[in-house]
């Protein structure tokens, strides 16, 4: 075969390029830097890569590639730390990992969960590399076979995972997903530029809410607040159970799940325009559907960690296909990667259609550098996981102020507006109540993440389909119902049917007890008021901008219908029914020594102080007062911890060349960095 | 005086004022180059290319870092820059066509004024439109054969750089239906490759790196380039694509398309704003002359590098890089449009796409 006649020598050339001490050294350097950036939630590969960019100009291509790939490759691996240990989704790729990883940490099995996740991650990365080596030379027609209807169907398949994660009351899951989608439509519409639930008088919302903020708000804020109220360590009884070898064994016992999820990851990653946010949910859904005893999901099922982690790293490999073959970035970090490649050497490596023809050896180097970086990164991560897992045995009151610090900083980095932190707080409130009343938070997040793709692809596919139908009916039908669409449709229907049947046993929030009627009904009414407002707002968009109003109207209508049925059910059913689930009625939250509002006030205090004196000064005051008053720490400990926190922030922001949120004080007086 | 001689004399002036330059020294300082887009866009690539070169040429070799301030289609960053005053010459701002168009169209979000800013460097690009083979066969140097064909185009939005091709096709009497909401021209090309879009365009570098391969493989037929500006401000063939007719030639050959009058002038004004002077580097208002001269001299030195043509082929290509006076003239052209032309475009956007700017 002609293809292999050129591919094999190129593969050999690639290995010759990679296997040089200097190249491997740069790779390890990149990996270490990537780990340092990746363990902080919300920063991820984009921040790290922009840090490297100034050095790329004129650099020897293979060295620059080693450095950059080392950094990109470990971010989806290292962000697992915060997902598992703190319940904070480190990036969009590890949202599903939180669902079972964090409960495992709370059982004292953090090391086991981490090493299982890392092993799965490593394996996914290697499967991705092998698959790509064979596949990349023939990938072009397959990528081109995925048109808009196919991409729409994949997004809908991702959305159908809501069925699995809907919780005990399916309608609540549906409404949560609908609310997530509606919140995802906030801002200027892509198609016609209409404003939805936003105004130019308050410009912040016109760009919509960032995924980082919604992810942190929905998962991190409620968990931090809840743990802080209970005033104990993350791991119950502050003891570490299973060790890292158990995690590796867990992975081995589930290797076939890992293989399947890796393949899901590569295939979805190959399709440009979808990005990583769907992959982990599809993999999680698959893990649930293929597990016989589903009762442990959401409470610490190791398969719920292995599935998404296998897929999210394999996706990175898959994402290289559109990046290298078409010059179309699959993610933000890939976009920077493309830009950086043009700076390397004499600038003659041009990512795009000519890449395979002119630079097949470089292409293979990239694929295998990615695999190697995965191996190095995983070994490092597993090596430190036992030690880092000890964090879960620390009294949480000592961790919480630093977590508030990190998530506020991460939120601010997403748009560099003070409003970013306010939005984090507001979404955090929604998250707290969704959690309290057992409305599926994963369903909300899936809705939010997929809101934009579903809207975009359905509008565009509709436009092109009507164009085809004008040509001929047959042409239109061929376009909409391609074999891929039909296959995806069948998978979606099957997964919804199976998912609904299983959803009742999967309790992402644990077994929430039911309480009185009043609080759940009030929360329902509040959601309903927002949905109504969004509906009225969307309806006010003029009809010639139908593309901007149709999706909010349809989604809002369905959500409203679900809410109305729920309202009727709530009125009819007796107190104590599962529909009235309320964490404040009994259980950990109800028994917590501290109240919700008092605890939340600490975070609000940090935000308010930032508004006046800027982040660093506010943080210094916050840490001292929190540690003295809430944690009752002695002065020396308080001062040392505060200094450590401030130093960490300054070093990180300084190294990444980031600013801190300024306050009114900074507007009035010119202060030196980091105070300005 | 032509742009070239202007630029050359500016450079000579800058060199003559050498002694004055010695006063500006950036040793140990960090220059922040603020880009009102995300890390992933074309402007990021542009600034990242120039940053290390600029660092080598500025006195004292300061570190030049690129900072990103995305939001509201770049108007957020531009509004922020409007508030900045000169401090110590360590701030630079980069705007692009996407910052210029809202300014020209009186977008309500715009609170910035180009007249306040001090341009030091500008670069441009060109663009090429191409068709699928089936419809491309009907193109014979005029668009007469294409006027009764329905075409689909993947577009990033009618008020951005896509305004120029959409208006060009409209002037040719073509019926092009834009599918809005794609991100980046690469996505547009992919839509074309999948056969979903039937007409597309790329900026020059995008055409050479992606679409030219399609043309070579016979899956795309080039239609025209937008053209380039000659020294007298006329639209001529794009020097990067000398074998391709410019839009002006195609328009002249097509029934019903006029190369003069309000519609033509409107197209030309937005073309100039979006392409020949697409990306401009500014110093904040109030910058003293010695700082301006220092930057102009540094960019001049970058342009004079013997390897500049080679290393900049992806960034600048065959298009002139304007420095100093040349950049000021380019900025003037990129940000001025007659009231008639503006009114024409605003009406057209409203009638065709329901876009209202108020």
Automatic annotation (TrEMBL), chain A:
Transmembrane segments: 26-44, 51-75, 114-137, 143-166, 173-189, 209-228, 324-346, 366-389, 396-415, 479-500, 520-538, 550-572, 600-627, 639-656
DUF112 domain boundaries: 24-445
Superkingdom of origin organism: Bacteria
This protein's record includes keyword Ligase: no
Any matching Pfam family: TctA
Signal peptide: none
Record keyword Transmembrane helix present: yes
Keywords, ordered alphabetically: Membrane, Transmembrane, Transmembrane helix
Name this polypeptide is given: TctA family transporter
Native organism taxonomy: Bacteria, Pseudomonadati, Pseudomonadota, Alphaproteobacteria, Rhodobacterales
UniProtKB/TrEMBL annotation, chain B:
Cleaved signal peptide residues: 1-22
Coiled coil: none
Keywords of this entry: Receptor, Signal
Family statement drawn from the similarity comment of this UniProt entry: Belongs to the UPF0065 (bug) family.
Name assigned to this protein: Tripartite-type tricarboxylate transporter, receptor component TctC
Source organism per UniProt: Salipiger thiooxidans
């Amino acid at each position: 075969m002609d293809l292999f006649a050129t591919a094999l020598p190129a593969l050999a050339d690639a290995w010759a390029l990679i296997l040089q001490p200097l190249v491997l050294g740069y790779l390890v350097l990149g990996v270490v830097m990537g780990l340092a950036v990746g363990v902080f939630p919300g920063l991820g590969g984009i921040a790290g890569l922009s840090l490297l960019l100034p050095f790329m100009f004129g650099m020897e291509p293979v060295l620059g590639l080693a450095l950059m790939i080392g950094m990109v490759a470990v971010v989806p691996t290292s962000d697992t730390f915060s997902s598992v240990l703190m319940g904070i989704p480190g990036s969009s790729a590890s949202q599903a990992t939180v669902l079972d990883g964090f409960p495992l940490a709370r059982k004292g099995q953090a090391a086991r969960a981490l090493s299982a996740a890392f092993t799965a991650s490593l394996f996914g990365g290697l499967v991705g590399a092998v698959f790509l080596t064979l596949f990349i030379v023939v990938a072009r027609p397959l990528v081109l076979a995925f048109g808009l209807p196919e991409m729409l169907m994949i997004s809908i398949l991702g959305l159908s995972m809501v069925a699995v994660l809907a919780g005990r009351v399916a309608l609540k899951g549906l409404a949560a997903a609908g609310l997530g989608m509606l919140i995802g439509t906030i801002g200027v519409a892509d198609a016609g530029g209409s404003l939805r639930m936003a105004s130019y008088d308050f410009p912040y919302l016109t760009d919509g809410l960032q995924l980082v903020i919604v992810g942190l708000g929905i998962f991190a804020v409620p968990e931090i607040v809840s743990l802080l109220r209970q005033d104990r360590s993350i791991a119950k009884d502050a003891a570490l159970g299973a060790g890292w070898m158990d995690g590796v064994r867990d992975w081995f016992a589930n290797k076939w799940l890992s293989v399947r999820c890796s393949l899901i990851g590569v295939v979805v990653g190959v399709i440009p325009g979808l990005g990583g946010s769907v992959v982990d949910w599809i993999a999680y859904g698959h893990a649930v559907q293929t597990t016989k005893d589903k009762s442990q999901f959401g409470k610490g099922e190791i398969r719920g960690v292995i599935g998404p982690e296998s897929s999210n790293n394999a996706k990175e490999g898959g994402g290289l296909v559109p990046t290298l073959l078409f010059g179309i970035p699959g993610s933000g970090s890939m976009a920077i990667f493309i830009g950086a490649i043009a700076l390397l050497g004499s600038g003659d490596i041009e990512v795009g259609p000519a890449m395979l023809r002119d630079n097949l050896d470089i292409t293979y180097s990239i694929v295998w550098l990615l695999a190697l970086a995965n191996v190095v990164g995983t070994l490092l991560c597993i090596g430190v996981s036992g030690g880092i897992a000890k964090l879960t045995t620390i009294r949480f009151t000592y961790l919480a102020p630093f977590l508030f610090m990190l998530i506020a900083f991460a939120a601010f980095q997403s748009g560099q507006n003070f409003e970013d932190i306010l939005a984090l707080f507001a979404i955090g409130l929604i998250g707290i109540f969704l959690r309290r009343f057992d409305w599926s938070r994963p369903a909300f997040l899936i809705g939010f993440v997929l809101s934009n793709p579903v809207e975009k692809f359905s509008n565009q596919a509709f436009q092109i389909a009507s164009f085809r139908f004008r040509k001929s009916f047959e042409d239109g039908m061929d376009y909409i119902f391609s074999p891929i669409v039909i296959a995806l449709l069948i998978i979606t229907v099957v997964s919804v049917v199976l998912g609904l049947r299983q959803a009742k046993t999967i309790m992402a929030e644990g077994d929430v007890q039911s309480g009185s009627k009043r609080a759940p009904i009030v929360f329902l009414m509040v959601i309903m008021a927002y949905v109504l407002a969004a509906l009225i707002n969307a309806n006010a968009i003029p009809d010639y901008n139908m593309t901007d109003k149709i999706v909010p109207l349809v989604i809002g209508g369905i959500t409203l219908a679900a809410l109305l049925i729920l309202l009727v059910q709530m009125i009819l059913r007796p107190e104590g029914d599962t529909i009235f689930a309320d964490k404040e009625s009994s259980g950990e939250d109800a028994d917590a020594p501290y109240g919700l509002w008092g605890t939340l006030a600490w975070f609000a205090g940090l935000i308010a102080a930032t508004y006046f004196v800027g982040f660093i000064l506010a943080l210094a005051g916050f840490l001292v007062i929190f540690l003295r008053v809430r944690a009752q720490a002695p002065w020396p400990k308080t001062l040392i911890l505060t200094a450590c926190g401030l130093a960490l922030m300054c070093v990180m922001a300084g190294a990444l060349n980031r600013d801190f949120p300024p306050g009114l004080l900074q507007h009035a007086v010119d202060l030196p960095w980091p105070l300005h | 005086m032509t742009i070239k001689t202007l630029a050359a004399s500016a450079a000579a002036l800058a060199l003559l004022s050498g002694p004055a330059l010695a006063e500006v020294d950036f040793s140990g300082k960090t220059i922040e180059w603020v880009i009102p887009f995300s890390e992933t866009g074309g402007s990021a690539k542009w600034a990242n290319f120039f940053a290390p070169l600029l660092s080598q040429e500025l006195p004292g070799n300061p570190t030049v870092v690129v900072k990103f301030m995305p939001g509201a289609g770049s108007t957020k960053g531009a509004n922020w820059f409007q508030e900045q005053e000169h401090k110590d010459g360590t701030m630079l701002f980069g705007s692009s066509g996407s910052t210029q168009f809202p300014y020209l169209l009186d977008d309500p979000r715009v609170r910035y004024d180009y007249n306040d800013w001090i341009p030091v460097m500008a670069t441009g690009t060109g663009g090429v439109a191409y068709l699928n083979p089936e419809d491309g066969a009907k193109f014979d140097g005029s668009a007469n054969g294409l006027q009764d064909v329905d075409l689909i185009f993947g577009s990033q939005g009618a008020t951005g750089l896509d305004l120029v091709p959409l208006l060009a096709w409209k002037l040719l009497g073509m019926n092009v239906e834009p599918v809005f909401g794609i991100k980046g021209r690469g996505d547009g090309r992919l839509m074309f490759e999948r056969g979903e879009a039937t007409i597309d365009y790329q900026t020059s570098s995008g055409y050479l790196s992606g679409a030219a391969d399609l043309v070579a493989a016979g899956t795309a037929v080039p239609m025209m380039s937008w053209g380039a500006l000659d020294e007298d401000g006329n639209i001529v063939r794009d020097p990067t694509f000398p074998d391709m007719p410019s839009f002006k030639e195609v328009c002249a050959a097509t029934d019903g398309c006029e190369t003069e009058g309000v519609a033509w002038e409107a197209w030309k004004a937005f073309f100039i704003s979006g392409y020949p002077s697409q990306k401009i580097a500014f110093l904040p208002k109030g910058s003293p002359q010695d700082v301006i001269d220092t930057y102009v001299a540094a960019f001049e030195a970058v342009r004079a590098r013997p390897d500049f043509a080679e290393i900049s082929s992806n960034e600048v290509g065959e298009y002139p890089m304007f420095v100093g006076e040349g950049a000021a003239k380019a900025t003037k052209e990129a940000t001025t449009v007659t009231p008639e032309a503006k009114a024409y475009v605003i009406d057209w956007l409203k009638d065709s796409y329901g876009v209202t700017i108020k």
